[in-house]
Amino acid sequence: MTSTDILKVSFEFSSKIGVRELPWLKSTKESNVKGLYVVGDLADAPIIKVAINQGYEIAETVIAELKADGPAPPGVLDVVVIGAGPAGIGAALALKASGLSYVLLEKERPFNTIQNFPKAKFIFSEPRSIESKGNFWFDDAQKETLVERWDEAISEKGLVLHQPEEVTDVKKQESHFVVETAMGENGRHLEHKTLEGYAGDAGATNAYKARRVILAIGRRGSVNKLNVKGEDKEKVAYNLKDPDDHAGHNLLIVGGGDSAVEAAISCAKAGAHVTMSYRGETFSRAKKKNQDDLTALADAGKVKVLLGTVPLEVLDDKVVLKKGDQTIDVKNDDVIVLIGTKLPSGFLKKIGLRMDGAFTWQRVSWILTFACMTYLFYVLKAKRGFWPFGADDPLSMIPPLLKANFGWRAVDASFWGSLIYTTLILSFGMRAYRKYPSVTQKRRYISLMVFQSVFLFGIPEILAPFIMSQPWKIYAVTVPWPLSIWSVIEGPTWSGHTSGVGIAWMVVGAVASFVLVPLYVRKNGIRFCSYLCGCGGLAETVGDFWRHLAPRGVTSYKAEWAGKVIFLAAIPTTLLIINDSWSVFQAAQLTNVKTFAQAWYGLIVDFWLASVVGVAFYPYLGNRVWCRFFCPLRAYMEVLSKWFSKITIKADDKCIGCGECTKQCQMGIDVQKFAQRRVDMDNTNSACIQCGICVAVCPMEVLSIGERGTAPLTPKAPKKVGKPLPILS
Description:
The protein contains 25 helices and 24 strands. By secondary structure, the chain is α/β, with parallel strands linked by helices. It folds into 3 domains: about 25-220, FAD/NAD(P)-binding domain, CATH 3.50.50; about 225-340, FAD/NAD(P)-binding domain; about 415-630, no CATH class. The radius of gyration is 30 Å and the shape is globular.
């Protein structure tokens, strides 16, 4: 194991863990190469129906641009579409209807990924609420029926399709692209008239000029291989075509995902003598139903499972596996390797596409600029005498300029900062409200905007000053302890009458923190963070741009303990300050300790972590840095939620592993794993704040919010979910 491998194992803290790597794209799906658009699986549309529609819609955008530009020059096509999968066919349908010139290039067969599905695999036409555009038939059916109907539709609609013709390069010139290709064997040329200069013989090369290019090649550039001796033997395959081909054969299947497990199940049922080799100790990546079916076959002796093994060498009559320090010989006639596919990174880099999250100078500049703006904003809002606003600093004149007296109250930078904060939540909240069609999400954003504008600004900053000398104490109810340790400390002055140490108000703060919060958590889990909280309001609105950057991996989950540490630190800090307020003890050292604790907690937690770091890292580590890793209130509510909350995220059995739920989870949870295993996701096994975004973005409607029930719960989630399959020898 290399030092790099050790680092990967020991430090897993990245937004790229557990999600698909994708190119950087604009909202129009145009890449960083002007005029080159990306659609389909490579543009985050892994669902067949969604991909068809996305290809159609982006093609319509391109058509509108080209018609506005006028006709193409002689010898130049309007559009070249690369890839005849669902998205590419969708784009071709729109282009055909528009009358613009185009060609659709496919290096193998139309719908090649679907063609490689196992025999008789049933495909669902989810989501039901969406109709396929371009009048292209798609309904629930077996693979063979779909492919047959779609091949007929391609011919009937007269799509300009060249296959098998592989695109080898896409070069951008001043006014157009040059798409270079190479023909494969048995090429077909389906169109009404031949393109000038087109060569259709195997091995021939072509070059197409086009004003626009739509890339619809998907993510499966090539299959992952074992890279062991003998892997090039004829008996080794990388997909399952027909389970009946292996009937009566000794078959070794290598892999542990759904594809491998489903292949083992179908081949065993077809009469093959199946052995499975997987490097893991459980089939945790596979769906629960597939795990259960495989377990049943293993228990019946129809599938032999060798976990914790990796192939060492492929021989004519066997494969040598390694398990620890031992080797195992597995006799076989056929080998199927199903260990995933690789992104066509080399091709994407060659044609100049930039991947999402790449550190360009523009992104680095934006991250630093945003961090600087955040720091300056919070220095003013928190009224800290830090550079550049300190007494002898360059901008020392600004804090006094922000002071004003309205008669009913005097204001300073803190007031204007709160006003700007509220304005940001309202403006970006409306954007998020329009972005998510889910009724639940719309209600959630309304809740965030109303709570911020009324209870976190309107009442404490506008109305309360008319009747209170310390209106900020209203926050004792809306910003409960330990998010604000001042919520249970120091009472207000009511209409000129001092309440002394503020017993009544301390009781109000204590009731909010220790009675209302637990009652809320009982029914709603940690939804306070995503429905009511001011920090969460900014994260869910302004920070919505960067929710997909939340780090994932073992190290990131361990780092969530920082919030519990701050929660524990809040307890003695609060007690020390209360001790001084009540004057129970007069020892000078306690007062000194109290002063130190108060200053330390306010500076480190309230200013640096909650404000500056929590927001400044949005463009780098996602929108929940403060909430997830440092917020003591979330840590407090998580403890309560583990004990008695009812809320959970549930999953049905239709997960296709697209990863959209994991990608959009702002708390960095690998939601897809929970969905595939059909394990309820709650605060016994995750830092979920029940925002419901994973439910809203799931294209298969797999996830839903429900109740955990009344069964006793384990305080800690098991490290491995699902029944492990037996290791057979």
